[in-house]
Design brief:
There is one protein chain. By secondary structure, the chain is an alpha/beta fold. The protein has five domains: 1-35; 40-216, EF-hand (Recoverin, domain 1, Orthogonal Bundle); 229-426, Four Helix Bundle (Hemerythrin (Met), subunit A) (Up-down Bundle); 430-529, Beta Barrel (Elongation Factor Tu (Ef-tu), domain 3), CATH 2.40.30; 532-615 and 650-697, Rossmann fold. It is 55% helix and 11% strand. β11 (606-612), α28 and β12 form a beta-alpha-beta unit.
Length: 700
Amino acid sequence: MAAPLIELIRMRPRAVRLLARDVRHGIEVASRCVQQPARPSSVDRALIEVIERSFARLAAKGGVIDVKTLQDALGLRSEYLARRVLAGFDLNRDGVIAKDEFIAGVRALIAGTDQEKLSFAFRVHDHDGDGALSRDELLRMIAISLSESDVTERVTQPAERLAQSLFAAADKNADGRLSFAEFEAVVRKYPALLRAMTRSEAQWIAPNEDIVARVEGGAPGGSLSLFSPRENGRGPVLVLCAWIATNVGILAFGLARGRGGPPVNELMQAGRALAKCIDFNGALLLVPVMRRWLTWVRSTFVGRALPIDQAVTFHRVVGHTLVALGLAHGGALIASYVIGHPTGSVDGFVFRTERGLTGVALLVVIAIMWVFALSIIRRTARFELFYFSHLLYVVWFVLAIAHSPSFLLWAGVPLLGFAVEQIFRLARRGRKTTVVEAHALRSGVTRIELRTPPGFTWRPGDYAFLRIPAVAEHEWHPFTISSASESGKLTFHIRSLGNWTAALRRGVEGDEQRGARPELVAYVDGPYGSPSAHIFDSRFAVFIGAGIGVTPFASVLESLLLRARSERPPRLAKAHFFWLNKDQYSFEWFAALLADLEKNDLTALLDIHLCMTAGRGGAMALGLELARQVGHAAGHSDIITGLRTHTHMGPPDWEQMLGAIRAQHAPERVDVYFCGPPGLAAKIRPVCARLGMSFREEKF
C-alpha cells in the first residue's frame, strides 16, 4: 500500500499539492467555525450588520456576487484581477461569492488575525492554487497592480526587477517558490502593510461606513463645528458668541423701545428692530474682506488672538444672516400693513414710497449676490457669475444709505477703512509686469513665472491676485505664490478649474506647440497673508497639501531650505510634510524641489510623506507593495516619484500618522497647516481636535 502511494507522490506532485491545499482550506473553514463565539460582541454584531448591508448592495438577484459585479464594485479594468479577488472569497470554488463566504471573508480582512488577512492575500496571488507563489505569478500580479494604479514603470525598476527583489528577500530556501511561511515572514517585517490593507478593503466593502474605527474602538469620524473650541481654540467661539449676543441685544432693545407709551403695532416694531440688526451686520460685512488690513493685523500680537483664518467663513455667515434678516424685516413690515396699518396700504408702502422701493431693490440685489455666491456656482466653471455679481456690493451700500441714512452711523468707519483699502489696492494694482516663463504641466496645472515688480516682497505662504488682460480684461483671481522670496523668482502654479484658468492653459499650450516664448502682460495685487504666515512661529509643524493645495508649502519648504543654507536658521525645529495626489504625474510639479530637499536636509529638519490616493492597495496589490518596501529598504528610489521618499498608496490613516507625530513631540504643541479641498479638511480637523493639535486651513 505504501509503495503505490509513494509512486503517486513521485509521479503526480501537483495533484498532491492540490489535495493538500483542499485539506488546508477545509481545516481553515472548520477552525473559523470553531473559533467563532456563540454570542458575538456588540462590535462584532455591528460589523456583521455592516457587512450584510454591503452584501445586499452588491449581490445580484440570485443572492450572490459574480465576477462582473465584483469588478464593478472594485472599479477594476482587469477581469482577471477581479477573478483573483473572487478566488480569495470563494472557498467552495463555485465561481460566485455567497453571503456566508462574503461575511467570513470580510470579517477575516477587517477583524481577523494577521494570519487570516495574509491567507486571503496569499490566495489572491496564488493563481494555480498549489500553495506556493511562483516568480511568474508574482510578476503577473505586480504588473497588473501597476497598470490598475496607472503607474508607469521606471527604466531602472521594471516589474521584473521588483519581483526579483522580492524573491531575493523572501525565498530563503532558494527553491524559486514562495511558501506561505516565507510570504508571511517578509510581510511581518512591514507591519504597516497589514493595517493599510485592512483600510483599503474597507473602502470598497463599505464606503460610507467607518468599520475600521468600529473594530479598533477608535473615535468615529466626522466633522466638528467650525467654531468648536476643541478644534480651533477659544477665539472663533468667543467671536461667534459676541456676534450672536450683540444681535440678540440689538433685537431685544428694538423690541422693548417705546414700551410704556401709546400702543404700538407689534409687527412694525419687530420690523424696525430687525432693521437695526441689518445695520449692524451690513457694517460688519466689510471687515472680513479687508485683506490688506487683516494681513497687517495677522503680523501683530492681536492676530494671534483673533480668528483671522476664519475671516472668509465669517463673511459668509454674516452674508447668509443678512439675507435672512432682510426677508424677515420686509415680511414683518408688509404683514403690519396687511393686518391694518392706520396710515397706508401694502401697495402704497411698497411701490409708492422711497423706503419701499429701495427696500425691494435691496432685497433683489442681495438675493442675486447670495445665489451666485453659493458653492455650486462659485466652485465651478461659472466663477465669473460669482465675480461680477459680487460687484453689486457697491449698489447695495448705496441703496442701504438711501433706504436708511442712519445706516451711515453704523457703517461709516468700516466704509472708510474699506475705501482706504481700495485706494491702496488700486495703487498697487497699477504695477505692470510680464510673464517670463510659462509651462503647461501634467494634471491640468500651469506654471507661470513673472518678473518681480519693484518693491514687491512676500513671505512664504502669501498669495496675490492676478489679472492677465490677454486672458480676461477685467478679472482678478487669487493664487498662492509657490516660490520663496529668497529665490528671487515670483512663480504661481495654477490648476485649471474654471474658464479663466482653462483659457490661460490653452494659451500656454499654444505657445509651447509653436515654440514661442510667452508674451503676456500681467498685473499683480498683493501680497496678502494667509494662515501659513504663522508657520515660522511654530516649533513643530505638520504641512498637509492636497493636489495644487501644495503651493503655499512649496514656498515654505523652499524658504526653509534656503534659510538652512544661510546663517539665519528658522525657529522651526521639525516639519512633517504630507502631499496627497491622485496620480503619479502630479508629483512632477515640484519633484526638483523635493529632490533638492532630500539632498540638502542635512539636519533632518523635514520628514516627507507622499500619498498617491488613487493607487491600488489591499490584498490584490500586496505583492507590489511588498516589492516596493523591499526596494525602499535596499535604498532604491521610489518607483512612483523617483525620490528616496517612499510613496504611500491610497489615502493616509490620519489617526495613526498624526497620532505618531503627536506622540513624537509630546508634550510640545504641534501645529497643523492645511491647504486642500474642504471635504478632506472635514476629515482631518476632528482628528487634530482629538489629538490636541491646532488646525489652520488655507482659505481665500
